[in-house]
Amino acid sequence: MAEKNDKYGKELDLAVRIVHMACSLCQKVQQSLVSAASGHVLAKDDDSPVTIADWSVQATVSWLLSEFLEGWSVSIVAEEDVQTLSKPEAASLLSAVVNTVNECLAEAPKYGLQCPKKVLGTSQILEAISRCNSTGGPTGRHWVLDPVDGTLGFLRGDQYAVALGFLEDGKLVLGVLGCPNYPMRKELLNYNHQCNQIKPTSPPSSDIWQKGCVMYARRGTGQAWMQPLIHGDTKFEWPNSATLLQASPVDDPSLATFCEPVEKANSNHLFTEGLVNSIGLKNRPMRVHSMVKYAAIARGDAEVYIKFARSGYKEKIWDHAAGVVIVEEAGGVVTDAGGRPLDFSRGLYLEGLDRGIVACSGPILHDKIIGAVYASWDSSNL
Ligand SMILES: Nc1ncnc2c1ncn2[C@@H]1O[C@H](COP(=O)(O)O)[C@@H](OP(=O)(O)O)[C@H]1O
Ligand SMILES: [Mg+2]
């Protein structure tokens, strides 16, 4: 077991194993989605596969955390609620979730965890999902879960993440980020040409694409780690070939790569283009779904991540928690556009966030971006 004698060692060890299991669950669901769509265009409004993955991951993570930590009193802030799933018309969805969760939990021994003594029933699974109704806040211990971050990426057979953070007394102390499609070569992350449908043969089902990883960090250690996902009959053995992550040393903007959301609706591409041009960034933006953008900064595949949501949009803590601590421990800097740290202590949202989010591989680039925000804000079209 990892770092058991250290503070949060037990929680980190468990969270990493759980996120590995959740990634495997997602890969199976996404694979069935790719097979189902093989040769066809998946209906754009058919979001049931991602819904199954969302609820199944939430139920699995909730059940495992409760089973191996403080029992039913464990506090989890998570994206999904149980209402839709409890409706009579969602019966087949619910039954798919029940099967998916039980299949995943049956694999627990492979990850060094015990599986349930009996297959979980529908009511236990609904209870596990609905238990994740904490609203976090400034005191106590809270897990923060985004079961499938980047739902569009998931549906498109593209990038998505499973994100699990841990807060104590309002401070972010652990982050675990599963990136099941994170390619080993950064070029494969670059999706400027969005894929609007599942593309079973592109990227190729090569070894590179199948890899995937789990990143994790504990606040204050100055270290962030990455483990490959396990495949087939391989058993998860700590430290599971963990390697240290190091954010990029590049601090010359002309050599830096910046990443941002794929969706224009989620971040103002025009504003960020002006911003990065003004400090001399030349590389094309790396547009990637989900918190994989934080992963790219932590691994040194990109130097800058900027997100400026439309005014009035409130950023949720689960969309950032895991990624922020990993980037910071890998040597990066994450703040709002005013240069202040993100505040995870005020409930479901990053309350008080100044305009947008700026994550950089180091302080020099970060200062430049923040300076550019001040210089260009008044003339911006936000
Ligand atoms: N209008 C909006 N502006 C900014 N972010 C939004 C948004 N609508 C949804 N999001 C958030 O952006 C996340 C996706 O991030 P990105 O665009 O970087 O891939 C979504 O996570 P989910 O996919 O988990 O819902 C969602 O929480
Ligand atoms: Mg999300």
Automatic annotation (TrEMBL):
Pfam families: Inositol_P. Its cofactor is Mg(2+). InterPro entries: DPNP, Inositol_monoP_metal-BS, Inositol_monoP_superfamily, Inositol_monophosphatase-like, Inositol_monophosphatase_CS. It is an enzyme of class 3 (hydrolase). Converts adenosine 3'-phosphate 5'-phosphosulfate (PAPS) to adenosine 5'-phosphosulfate (APS) and 3'(2')-phosphoadenosine 5'-phosphate (PAP) to AMP. Belongs to the inositol monophosphatase superfamily. This is 3'(2'),5'-bisphosphate nucleotidase. It comes from Gossypium arboreum (Tree cotton).
